[in-house]
Design goal:
11 strands, alpha+beta, 11-stranded antiparallel sheet, Putative amidase domain-containing protein, Amidase_6, globular, 392 residues, Nuclear Transport Factor 2, Chain: A, endopeptidase fold (from Nostoc punctiforme)
């Protein structure tokens, strides 16, 4: 039972949490409950108990993400329920993935701190559903550059069901879009192999006299695109706009995913690419090419607004080849795009917003909200990447 990952299909959030193998933990808790329904007597009578449980759970959640010790949060789950067991099992899988990814990338996570905001609370029969948004800040350092901490942000929307068992509130379900376990097409997903050497990012000093010449500003405003992507990265730490999407545009979360809609906004609002009759948003609805990943890819390539740099598995993108002597990863720039393909279908889009301390591209995305996250984090070794250069 795996619900995460296909952002351009009709799908439902999955049961998951956090966990991993790392060092110091910092946790921030922000709590604000809006009781839209004063008739919820169950909630009104138990809100302080529920608050205490959630505060402690999210604090431990950050700790587990660094330590990898699942025992820290086992006691929060209703293990007498099949759903509770599933939730904990998904947590275990997530821990294993993040641990494996960090080892394969030769790095350690150094920090994990979160706060959350409750959007609504609804009482059911013998249970309470809490709808909340978690904002997480994480730090990581490569072993070859351990003195440099890279920071990234995640935004996670939870639907949590709590039940009272023997006088104690326990988590029976926790459904959410998870940026650290994006790959829904495969069970027991494992990260791709590949400990990276240090890469010189595209923003480094030019190597030739021709490269050193100042470039004319093109039709595509790369800095503007990155600024927009950073401002409207949603619930992810680092984002602006009070951790909210741009209200000017429709939010497609829950109806297929918002990742491609966000990338289209970045290209148009930030980058200055004009809409046309194929690629557009009219204030209420959007065209297929605006909001669906395969259609946007085809639109960019066939109109010449974008160029495919390379396509392949993780190692295909990072290792030097005859066609890409420094690796395709060296040719991508800020404001360019990365497509994610599973089983022959493009399922997700991210926009490149920078490079980390060894030159790995970092991306911003929606639905699973990300801010400056390494482009492959959360994805399976069988995922195929497409690097797209937006033509200036």
């Amino acid at each position: 039972m795996n619900y995460i990952g296909r952002e351009e299909s009709n799908w439902t959030p999955k049961i998951l949490q956090t966990n991993s193998p790392f060092t110091s933990t910092h946790f921030l808790t922000y709590f604000s409950i809006s009781f839209f329904n004063k008739t919820i007597e169950t909630v009104a009578n138990n809100k302080e108990e529920i608050k205490t449980v959630l505060d402690e759970f999210f604090k431990k959640r950050g700790s587990v993400l660094l330590s990898g010790d699942l025992k820290e949060i086992e006691g929060f789950y209703d293990k007498s329920s099949t759903y509770g067991k599933w939730a904990l099992d998904h947590e275990r899988r997530r821990v294993e993935y993040v641990k494996g990814w960090s080892e394969k990338r030769n790095l350690k996570f150094t920090e994990a701190e979160s706060f959350y905001r409750i959007k609504s609370v609804k009482a059911g029969e013998n249970s309470v559903w809490v709808y909340l948004v978690e904002t997480m800040k994480m730090g990581y350092a490569y072993n070859i550059k351990s003195d440099v901490i890279n920071y990234m942000g995640l935004g996670i929307r939870h639907s949590v069901q709590l039940v009272k068992v023997d006088g104690k509130w326990l988590i029976r379900r926790d459904w959410y879009y998870d940026p650290l376990d994006e790959d829904s097409a495969y069970i027991d997903a494992a990260p791709a192999e590949g400990i990276m050497p240090e890469i010189a990012p595209t923003t480094s000093k030019p190597e030739t006299e021709e490269e050193a010449k100042p470039k004319k500003k093109g039709k595509y405003d790369r800095e503007g695109a990155v600024a927009y992507a950073d401002k409207y990265a949603g619930a992810a730490w680092g984002s602006g706009n009070n951790y909210e999407y741009n209200p000017k545009y429709r939010d497609y979360n829950g109806v297929g995913g918002d990742c491609t809609n966000f990338v289209s906004q970045v290209l148009h609002e930030g980058g200055g690419l004009p809409m046309d009759y194929v690629w557009n948003f009219n204030g209420k609805d959007s065209s297929t090419a605006w909001a669906q990943a395969p259609a946007l890819f085809n639109y960019l390539i066939y109109t010449g607004k974008g160029k495919l740099i390379a396509k392949g598995y993780y190692l295909d993108m990072v290792k030097p080849t005859e066609q890409h002597p420094k690796g395709a990863i060296r040719e991508i720039e800020k404001g360019d795009l990365i497509c994610y393909e599973e089983k022959g279908e493009i399922v997700h889009f991210g926009v490149v917003t920078g490079f980390d301390s060894i030159g790995i591209p970092v991306v911003n995305t929606h639905t699973s909200d990300r801010y400056h996250v390494p482009f492959d984090l959360g994805w399976d070794k069988r995922v195929i990447y497409r690097f797209i250069h937006i033509n200036d």
